[in-house]
Each structure stands twice: as structure tokens, then as C-alpha cells.
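C-alpha cells for CN hydrolase domain-containing protein. Go.
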Amino acid sequence: MSTLTIAAAQSFSLAGDILGNIVRHGRFIEAAAEQGVELLVFPELSLTGYEGQDAVALAIDPQDAVLQPLRDLARELGVTAVVGMPIRLEGSVSALIGALVLGADGSLGVYSKQHLHTGEERFFAPGFGGPTLRFGGEVVALAVCADFTHASHAAAAADQGANLYAAGVLISDKGYAVDTAILQGYARQHSMAVLMANHGGLTGGWQSAGRSSIWSKDGSLIVAAPGTGDLLVVAQRNDGAWQGRVVPVTQAR
């Protein structure tokens, strides 16, 4: 079994500030590269914060040039980064909750959230999912928050051969125990590692629980952030055995 290093970027988002958040994301990508991370997953709507009322105004075409600095950095440092962004696909006026895959090879992948939380329909349309990602022999299925609350979503990932289920989320303290139990259960049920990248602090009026986590395919917790804040939650597999670490990410002032 090959080595693999993955990480959840538990990041704090500046409300509606795409350019400011791009700078912050860049620091996470740099920190991930320093840790040898191959796949880095950010929380839901990480590049804008969870600002539903502004989603239509903030939504971009996935190919928008505003993302080019991050795409260039991901390619330069050899890190595939999955970033959260409201997007608008060609021919549509509706905003979707996107997870954009900035490939280490310079490619761009698009995943859009299929299942909306109650109330999100005021600002977003349901999305269409997206293809799995491949890292050598690894198959990665993406999810965005409420997607994982539908058992059929994780089952479909397993049916596609996924051995890693990676979710960018916004989970508060109130929902944390239930939601993490669901994700841990998927690891056991489908024999796939599960990564959860949560926000690092307050966003869109919601106080995130932080505590981003990664579980192995038998449901064992590999590593979890101890609380909130800008943290890199890293899991590394060598010869089938996982080790985890939590790395603070210092942002420029």
C-alpha cells in the first residue's frame, strides 16, 4: 500500500472577502506543502464564509481568473486543494455551493453540493455532485456538509470505489456529536477513510465547533483538532498504518 498524506484545512473565513480569503488559503497551501500533504480539503464556502444572503453577488464561474493565484500556487507546490466557493455554471442564474478542486497538475475540477440544508434553498439551488478524484491507487469522493446526512450519498461513493470520503462542512457544537457519529459510521460501514474539514470560527452568524477530524477505514479516529482556530489537521499513512498531527497555521498580519 502506497504512502498517502491528507489534511483538513480548518480555516477561519473573512465574511465576503474573496481576495482576503485567497491570501489566507494560500498560507494553508504553503503549510500543507511543508507537511508533505497531497490532498488538502477546506470547509464549505471557505473562500467567502457562509454568507448565503450574498451568495448570488459573490458567485463566480469556476474558471474565473480570481482563482488563478491559488491554482498557480497549488501547482507550484504540488498540493491538490479543494476550496469552497459559491459558483454559477454556464447558462444558470442560480448560485450553487461549490467545492473546486485545484489540481496539483494545474487542472480544475468542479463538485457542487447536491443536498441543501433547510433554509439554504433561499440562496442556493441544489447542485450536481461531481466525479471522484484519483491519486495513484486512491479514489476520493467529495461531499459538502448536508450531502453526508443522506446515507445514499456515502453509499454511492463506496459504489464508485472510494477509499476516502472527504467533506467540507460547517458544523456547530449543537450538531457535532450527531454529525461526527454519522461520518465515523460511514468509515466503518463502507471501509473508507473519512475526512471532515470544519470552519475555524464564526461564519455567517454560526459559531463553528471546529474539531476537524479524520477517521481510518475501520472508524478509528486518527486525528482531530482540539477546538477552533486556524489549524492543519494532517493524517499520514505508511505501510497501512495511520499517524496524525495538528499543525497551527499562522496568518500574515
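The chain has a mean pLDDT of 96.
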